[in-house]
Design brief:
about 400 residues; mainly alpha; two-stranded antiparallel ribbon
Length: about 400
């Protein structure tokens, strides 16, 4: 048994909890800047036009890390790799907290974003440490940590900034990252490699994944899935702050609780994946995703409809995300880090497209237009699933042969 926070838990449960916390804290480093952009800009004397770089820099670092750092998990001991990346992310947070000039702030955020891809190394390690019968529930628990980090970052940033200023956010995250690095080395088992591939060989292997139908179809589903997710969470504040609601930033932030409830409810989709229903769960969840826009599209008329839509959408997104990762880590069990890193490239690009698309469409067609865009992305994901629904079984037969 392990002791975490003074509570005795089984080794498997303890590892799942630790992995989930790592993911939550690491992903929060990218998102905590969003609610305090104005404060950071005022403190450093930044023009409003430059404030967008505060968020963009971390995301660009994250994209680079997905392609160049996550594949390292197929080469080195992931326990040491995770600990090292957590410490380097802490360095980025410390530089951000100490920054008095824009260049130092952006350098810190870029470093933190680059090493925040420890999330994907953690997901891959968690999948490999699980038995096949428990992989789905492990991925469900661990990726719930990601959702908690994304949605909880706003609450954490707002509270800490109100108490001690925006720099305190980054100090707290740096301390948490250092503490987690110590726990990783103490509590997780070694991950030795009998045969170590070269870095170029790993990158070539990653590139070849994009020619394999299972990987490409699941990646494209993820692209449209998170494009739909991005349309909602990057655009929802626009109708809620307009007539007839005129909600404050704090009030709009409360809708994140509804999203969190939906996402955590879907964490149990991993149990279904463990019983061989991952592909069916994906199709059903994508139908729910498309249907959720019927409710969230009513943002100008009913707040309760929005709450229901948010819960259903986040439930569907989490269910598909867990099922996708379960299928991919099972099919490519010898290179889980590379496959998770490559898959998450689709995730990041889809989120960016959704965020850009929703603001552009809202300015031309209002929230109705944004809702139609979000539903269209969901239907694209559903069509890709339908066209490739037999790919999973074909891949299983190839693996057995």
């Amino acid at each position: 048994m392990l002791l975490i926070g003074g509570v005795s838990v089984s080794p498997a449960s303890g590892r799942r909890t630790l992995f989930a916390v790592i993911c939550a804290v690491a992903v929060a480093t990218i998102y905590v800047a969003q609610p305090v952009l104005a404060r950071i800009g005022d403190d450093l004397g930044l023009p409003e036009a430059d404030s967008g770089w505060i968020v963009t820099t971390g995301q660009l670092g994250y994209l680079v890390g997905l392609a160049l750092l996550v594949p390292l998990g197929d080469m080195f001991d992931r326990r040491k790799l995770i600990a090292g990346h957590l410490l380097l992310a802490a360095v980025g947070m410390a530089l951000t907290a100490l920054a008095t000039d824009l260049w130092l702030l952006l350098a810190g955020l870029a470093i933190a974003g680059l090493f925040a891809v420890v999330v994907q190394t953690t997901v891959a390690f968690a999948a490999d440490l699980s038995t096949p019968a428990e992989r789905g529930r492990t991925l469900g628990a661990v990726t719930s940590g990601v959702i908690i980090g994304i949605l909880g970052a706003r609450v954490l940033a707002g509270g800490l900034a109100a108490l001690w200023g925006w720099r305190s956010i980054y100090v707290v995250l740096a301390v948490l990252l250092i503490a987690l690095a110590g726990l990783v080395l103490k509590l997780l088992p070694p991950d030795p490699r009998d045969v170590r591939a070269t870095y170029s060989a790993v990158l070539i292997s990653l590139g070849r994944l994009f020619r394999e139908r299972l990987f490409l179809s699941r990646g494209l589903i993820a692209f449209f899935l998170f494009a739909s997710f991005g349309v909602l969470w990057s655009g929802l504040a626009l109708p809620l702050s307009a007539e007839p609601w005129h909600l404050s930033t704090a009030q709009i932030g409360l809708f994140g609780i509804a999203g969190l409830a939906g996402a955590l409810g879907a964490s149990r989709s991993g149990w279904g994946a463990d019983s061989g229903r991952a592909n069916v769960i994906t199709g059903g969840a994508l139908v729910l995703l498309a249907a959720s826009w019927l409710a969230t599209g009513q943002a100008s008329w009913s707040l309760w409809a929005v709450v229901i839509g948010v819960i259903v959408l986040d439930f569907a997104v989490q269910a598909v995300h867990v099922s996708n990762q379960h299928l991919l880590t099972a099919a490519y069990s010898q290179r889980t880090s590379s496959v998770i890193g490559g898959y998450m490239l689709f995730y990041s690009l889809g989120s960016a497209v959704g965020a850009i698309g929703t603001t552009a469409v809202y300015s031309a067609a209002g929230w109705t237009g944004s809702s139609l865009l979000g539903a269209a992305f969901a239907l694209c994901a559903l069509m890709i699933w339908a066209a490739n629904r037999h790919t999973v079984e074909d891949t299983r037969r190839d693996v057995l042969v």
